[in-house]
Amino acid sequence: MPRLAVWKFASCDGCQLTFLDCEDELLSVAARVEIAYFLEASSAPGPGPYDLSLVEGSITTPEDLERIRHVRRVSKRLVTIGACATAGGIQALRDFADVREFAAVVYARPDYIATLDRSTPIAAHVPVDFELRGCPPDKHQLLEVISAFLAGRRPVVPAHSVCVECKARGNACVMVAHGTPCLGPVTQAGCGALCPAFNRGCYGCFGPMESPNHASLNHWMRELGMSTPELVRIYRTYHATAEPFRRAAEEAQGFEEGAG
Amino acid sequence: MTHKTVRIGALTRVEGEGALVVHARDGRIAGLELRIYEPPRFFEAMLRGRGHTEPPDITARVCGICPVAYQMSACQAIEAACGAEVTGPLRDLRLLLYYGEWIESHALHVYLLHAPDFLGYDSGVAMAADHRDLVERGLELKKAGNELVTAIGGRPIHPVNVRVGGFYRAPSRRELAPAAERLRRARDHALATVAWVAGFDFPDVEHDYRFLALRHPSEYAILSGAVGTGDGRAEPAGFAVADWSDHVIEEQVPHSTALHARLDGETGYLTGPLARYALNSARLSPLAREAAAAAGLGPVCRNPYRAIVVRAVEIVHACDEALRLIDGYAEPERPCVPVEPRPGVGHGASEAPRGTLYHRYRLDDGGLVAEADIVPPTAQNQARIEADLRDLLGPRLTLPEDELAALCEKAIRNHDPCISCSAHFLDLRVDHG
Ligand code: SF4
Ligand code: SF4
């Protein structure tokens, strides 16, 4: 039986919990793979090598830099799950600040804390076979990724934007219908256009789509009344350091400077 | 002089990551540390400069297993700062959402993380090989909770529909109907769960806990209330959530790995199911009260191993109350009340499945967060868990180390420590002596 491992780095546990949230499928998946290493679910961790490693969380400490190399060495295939592992996650907001100042805000004795200046995705350190988006990922996509790797094929995960999912679901466009700012046009599909279905603008938790036109979106977001700081903040949340969102935020700031 | 160090390299079947180091010298415990090596994520620092509408979504990411708790404490703190209040059907919807999280979180802990300890398995999946029907019942129960959260919040982890002031869109009665259908079955499963776990073989241990839990005049407090404290014998003392920092102080202890919370100057109090039950058991739904009585719980439970029974009783209560709320649900006229930012400080606390979760925000003149403070349940329980472990290990230090390690893991799991939530936990090198 193929052997599966689930690893955690800096994260909220939500991505690996997505796996346990597959209530209907959990026992049938467990019948087809040996869950060899999954600390959150089992107190009997088995030694490597593993056929498939699912990695949650970003790299933020010196120890974890070492540990991810170990994980890569013992894994035949390595798949990152979620925004933390694929883009550094919310904790990557430290990249725009002084991490020592951050530590001083939270801890009376920041000198006890071993932490890196930046929060980096797994792919910045080791080769990654596939990156699954979402904060958290969609459980159907997660199951697709697991079954695809077990079957030795590439997972089928769309690269288009949330807008396409809105159309498929029959949502009215929240921008057109309600004038609500929405990151849907630049965000990768996968959630099923959840926020617009609740009359809310997308806040980008699945990260940037492949070729987003953020310049055009920024224009529309301003038309809908978003200020520059609001625009910068919406890009700088769960995927702040993912390249297209980083550029979109910088462009929003540049617009301000250009105008001023 | 004999030295002995028990190490549990990585705690399992808990949320997040931690380890335990115990030093023994001449047959006595010289040092004991529950070591948490969860990397710090600095939420309180990151929240500064964000808009007043942002903390519910952002703080949800502290913990994937109780995101609703973070959203509720954050919303209420910000609403308090802005002088707004969410009442009536919108408050009921919040409660409903929260019950959903309680059901799924408790079902996960009871069936997949905790019960295997009593039945001698390494995991829920391993347990399923011999007890498939039981594990399936647990998964069904968990699914009922997840479906309720999904119906109201859009998805079970980091729901998208919660906002300061209420919701983006209120669900229709029709949208809640399937969740209600499933909850009716779940309530039966929950009752069966109480009867099942009540029959486990529990170590005969009682601790003289000092409890802390929210208290509400008419509810088994989950969403809101004042803070109650006491030992379960005398009438509890209490204080307003806004006075939290006058009573609860977090300290960073140099030779310890985590912030230890002190309550009115004393260290080592307990929050979570045992605390809620001790201070509020009379306010459980009648069905949950009956189940508790049938399980032999009494009005206060001081045996930490029996926390699994209290959790099961709380699942009955959550199913029961959720059904009552759905039955009486009428779509509110508007999905949220307006919350205009203004400078000021707001406090909010609610009962995460693992215990009281406190948030405080100071908003500046521009309505942005100037300061944030989050006190999660595990940070509060840290010192008390260590005390439980001292009591457990003291007389047993001569046992083989692997046995000791297994015992400690079980004692820690009683408290369902959610280490990811412990935004304050440190990575600290200890002197192993
Ligand atoms: S990507 Fe989101 S859900 Fe996953 S671990 Fe990170 S914060 Fe949690
Ligand atoms: S609509 Fe956007 S923010 Fe909402 S769940 Fe989907 S990707 Fe995430």
From TrEMBL, chain A:
Coiled coil: none annotated. The keyword Lipid biosynthesis does not apply. It comes from the Bacteria. The keyword Heme does not apply. Transmembrane segments: none annotated. Keywords: Oxidoreductase. InterPro entries: Hydrogenase_assoc-protein, NADH_UbQ_OxRdtase-like_20kDa, NiFe_Hase_small_N_sf. Residues 12-148 form the NADH:ubiquinone oxidoreductase-like 20kDa subunit domain. This is Oxidoreductase.
UniProtKB/TrEMBL annotation, chain B:
It comes from the Bacteria. Pfam families: NiFeSe_Hases. Signal peptide: none annotated. Keywords: Metal-binding, Nickel, Oxidoreductase. InterPro entries: Ni-dep_hyd_lsu (IPR001501), NiFe-Hase_large (IPR029014). Its cofactor is Ni(2+). The keyword Plastid does not apply. Belongs to the [NiFe]/[NiFeSe] hydrogenase large subunit family. This is Nickel-dependent hydrogenase large subunit.
